């Protein structure tokens, strides 16, 4: 991984010739960028989850709707629950960001290096980015799914709280619902995360190509701004394409948690992914699968963009941004000028 003219690039680079930083530094940078970003986007995350779980339409015309817009929801949450409500579930959310970022950045680095060493494929090819990005995100998802469920439940509960502390939540959930409760929503998560992460890597790479084609000189002068814009665009596109699965995941994660949702309006129970999707389509229409998309897109743009923005600077000071061992590419190995980074937090956000 390079630092300097090509800041923001993540993954094994066979042209680096000793300038790659270590895998440990990759993991640390990914985790720290996710941690900083999570603090900034947490209010949008809470609003998004509230929208996703609301059975009633997000409209002023529905008298039973508690929330119907981002600003209105923000004001109501602030009035009813106080400013700290925007950081409900922040501790498990930070654990989610740190764990997810570390596993995803590190596994993407290792997978792309494996592709270069063990195959004849171009390690920075669009399809390689898609597959390695999806696999690294899937591995990260399996590692942090329990804290994702905890984060969702904390963000979903109003006042008075059902879970007082993280320990209280873990003990209560385990005793009342069993160990599998921590993997509720895993199926739609895995189904969504592979294409979401793959699209993020691929669209980020494509957008950087476009940017460098349109503004070849300007891109080199403002590398962080380019990373921010291209990362945000990739996040928005990817989130839109996979959003219905994220909504289904959230609905499944709060299954068995109906008592905490009673003050928010109607509640539903679902038997699984297909049953949830069918009920949403039948009762809420096709747009019901896109509830909370607006705060989700805003969050995706900000979180993805800021991850790409913070991560190069966070890994730059480590060891001077260089790797001790060398990875010498074959003499005839030619690569394009763009390298797609791995976002540290996906709903992930997918995290999101």
TrEMBL record:
GO terms for molecular function: antiporter activity; thiamine pyrophosphate transmembrane transporter activity. The keyword Membrane applies. GO terms for biological process: thiamine-containing compound metabolic process. It catalyses: thiamine phosphate(out) + thiamine diphosphate(in) = thiamine phosphate(in) + thiamine diphosphate(out). Solcar repeats lie at residues 21-114, 124-210, 222-317. Gene3D superfamilies: Mitochondrial carrier domain (1.50.40.10). The keyword Zinc does not apply. It holds the Pfam family Mito_carr. Belongs to the mitochondrial carrier (TC 2.A.29) family. Mitochondrial transporter mediating uptake of thiamine diphosphate into mitochondria. It is not clear if the antiporter activity is affected by the membrane potential or by the proton electrochemical gradient. This is Mitochondrial thiamine pyrophosphate carrier. It comes from Enhydra lutris kenyoni (northern sea otter). The lineage of its organism: Eukaryota, Metazoa, Chordata, Craniata, Vertebrata.
């Amino acid at each position: 991984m390079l630092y300097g003219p090509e800041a923001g690039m993540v993954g094994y680079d066979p042209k680096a010739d000793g300038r790659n930083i270590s895998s440990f530094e990759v993991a640390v940078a990914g985790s720290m960028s996710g941690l900083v970003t999570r603090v900034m986007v947490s209010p949008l995350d809470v609003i998004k989850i509230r929208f996703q779980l609301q059975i009633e339409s997000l409209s002023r015309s529905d008298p039973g709707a508690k929330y119907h817009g981002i600003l209105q929801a923000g004001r109501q949450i602030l009035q009813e629950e106080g400013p700290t409500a925007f950081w409900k579930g922040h501790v498990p959310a930070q654990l989610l960001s740190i764990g997810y970022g570390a596993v995803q950045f590190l596994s993407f680095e290792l997978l792309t290096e494996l592709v270069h060493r063990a195959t004849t494929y171009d390690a920075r090819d669009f399809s390689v980015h898609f597959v390695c990005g999806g696999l690294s995100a899937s591995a990260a998802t399996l590692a942090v799914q329990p804290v994702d469920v905890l984060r969702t439940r904390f963000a979903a509960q109003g006042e008075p709280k059902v879970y007082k502390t993280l320990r209280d939540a873990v003990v209560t959930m385990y005793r009342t619902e069993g160990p599998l409760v921590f993997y509720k929503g895993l199926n739609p998560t895995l189904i969504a995360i592979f294409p979401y992460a793959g699209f993020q890597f691929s669209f980020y790479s494509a957008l950087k190509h476009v940017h460098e084609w349109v503004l070849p000189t300007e891109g080199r002068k403002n590398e962080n701004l380019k990373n921010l814009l291209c990362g945000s665009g990739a996040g928005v596109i990817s989130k839109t394409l996979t959003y219905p699965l994220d909504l289904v995941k959230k609905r499944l994660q709060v299954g068995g948690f109906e008592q905490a949702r009673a003050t928010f309006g109607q509640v539903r129970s679902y038997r699984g992914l297909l049953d949830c999707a069918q009920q949403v389509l039948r009762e809420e229409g096709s747009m019901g699968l896109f509830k909370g998309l607006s705060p989700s897109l805003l969050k995706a743009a900000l979180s993805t963009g800021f991850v790409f923005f913070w991560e190069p600077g966070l890994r730059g000071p480590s060891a001077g941004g260089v790797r001790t061992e060398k990875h010498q590419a074959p003499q005839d190995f030619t690569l394009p000028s763009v390298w797609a980074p791995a976002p540290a937090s996906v709903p992930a956000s997918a995290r999101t």
